[in-house]
Specification:
By secondary structure, this protein is of the alpha+beta class. It is built from 7 helices and 6 strands; from the N terminus they run H-H-H-E-H-E-H-E-E-H-E-H-E. 47% of the residues lie in helices and 21% in strands. Strands 3-4-2-5-1-6 form a 6-stranded antiparallel sheet. A hairpin with a 2-residue loop joins strand 3 and strand 4. The protein is elongated, with a radius of gyration of 62 Å.
Length: 306
C-alpha cells in the first residue's frame, strides 16, 4: 500500500511539473507575439507615418482671377467755363446741356468717320469699274536719216571686185559691212544659179500621215520641216541646207534626239545676191583690192565689167 501511494505521489509530482512547463511555454509564446507586434508597429510608424498621423492640410492657394478688366477711356470733359451770374433756375438746365455736349460730339465724329469710310469704298469700286483710258501715244522720236542703201547698178570701170554671192540676207549685210570698212561702196545685183543642196529625209508616207508628221516635227524640232510629193509617195524632210557641213551638224543633233535621217542631194535654182565694189582701170589694181578683201574674210575675186 505504501508503495502504491508512493507511485501516486510521484505521478502527481510529474503532472505538476509538466503543467508548470506548459504554463511557462505559453507565457513565452505570448511574450514573443507581443514583441513581434511591437516591432511591426514600429516599422509601420517609420515607413508609413501618414497612416498613424493624418496629413496636415495645406492652406488653400488663392485663385487667380482670369477676368481682364477693360479700361474705357472717357472723353475729356471740356474745361468748365466761368460761371456767369444767371438765375438759379437756368443753372441746372445749362449743366445738363454741357454734360450732353461731349456725347453728342462723339456720336457726330463716329457718324462722320462711317460716312468717310463708305465714300472711300464707293470711290474704290467706281475706280475699279471705270474703264482705263487708252495711254497717250508716246512722242515719236525725231526721224533719223536712213542709211545709204547699196547701189543696184553695176560699176562703171572696166574691172571690179566681186566680194561674194550670198543666199541669206544676213550674209549680205555682213559683206556690206566689210566692204565699207575697206573704204568702198558695195553694189548689189541678183543672179539665178543652180545650187546643190542637202536635204535631210525622215521618211515616205501617205499624204495624211506625212502632213501630220510635219506638223509634229515643226512643233518639236524645227520650223524648216516640209513635205514633198514624189513618185514613191509623200516624203518628209527636216530641212534643206546649201552647205553640207551645216546639214550634217543639224543631222547629228536630231540623231541625239532619236531621229534617223538620210542625206539627199538635190540641185535647186536659187536667186543669189552678188556684192561688188570698186571701179578699177586695170586688172592689177583690182587684184590689189582683192587681196585686201580676202584679208578681211571675203571670198573675193576680180570681175570684168561688161
Amino acid at each position: 500500500m505504501q508503495r502504491r501511494s508512493g507511485e501516486n505521489n510521484l505521478k502527481m509530482l510529474g503532472l505538476k511539473s509538466l503543467y508548470a512547463d506548459e504554463r511557462g511555454d505559453a507565457k513565452r509564446i505570448v511574450l514573443i507575439v507581443v514583441l513581434v507586434l511591437v516591432l511591426v508597429a514600429a516599422v509601420v510608424f517609420l515607413l508609413f507615418p501618414d497612416l498613424i498621423s493624418p496629413p496636415t492640410s495645406e492652406p488653400a492657394k488663392p485663385v487667380k482671377s482670369t477676368i481682364q478688366r477693360k479700361v474705357v477711356k472717357l472723353p475729356k470733359k471740356p474745361a468748365a467755363k466761368p460761371a456767369e451770374s444767371k438765375p438759379a433756375a437756368k443753372a441746372g438746365v445749362e449743366d445738363k446741356a454741357v454734360a450732353a455736349k461731349p456725347a453728342a460730339k462723339k456720336k457726330a465724329a463716329e457718324a462722320k468717320a462711317v460716312k468717310t469710310k463708305a465714300a472711300a469704298v464707293a470711290a474704290e469700286k467706281k475706280a475699279a469699274v471705270k474703264p482705263k483710258q487708252a495711254p497717250k501715244p508716246a512722242a515719236k522720236p525725231a526721224a533719223k536719216p536712213a542709211p545709204p542703201t547699196p547701189a543696184v547698178s553695176a560699176p562703171e570701170g572696166p574691172y571690179t571686185v566681186t566680194a561674194g554671192a550670198y543666199l541669206m540676207s544676213s550674209s549680205v549685210t555682213e559683206a556690206d559691212k566689210s566692204v565699207k570698212q575697206l573704204g568702198y561702196t558695195p553694189y548689189h545685183s541678183t543672179v539665178k544659179r543652180d545650187i546643190e543642196v542637202t536635204r535631210l529625209k525622215e521618211g515616205t508616207y501617205s499624204e495624211a500621215e506625212a502632213r501630220a508628221r510635219v506638223v509634229q516635227y515643226q512643233r518639236e524640232f524645227t520650223k524648216e520641216a516640209f513635205v514633198m510629193k514624189e513618185a514613191a509617195g509623200w516624203t518628209v524632210y527636216l530641212g534643206s541646207y546649201v552647205g553640207l557641213d551645216r546639214a550634217r551638224v543639224y543631222a547629228d543633233q536630231l540623231y541625239a534626239q532619236g531621229l534617223r535621217l538620210t542625206e539627199v542631194k538635190a540641185v535647186v535654182p536659187m536667186s543669189l545676191t552678188l556684192v561688188r565694189f570698186g571701179d578699177f582701170p586695170d586688172q592689177s589694181a583690182a587684184e590689189k583690192a582683192v587681196a585686201k578683201a580676202k584679208a578681211a574674210g571675203l571670198d573675193a575675186y576680180v570681175s570684168k565689167v561688161k
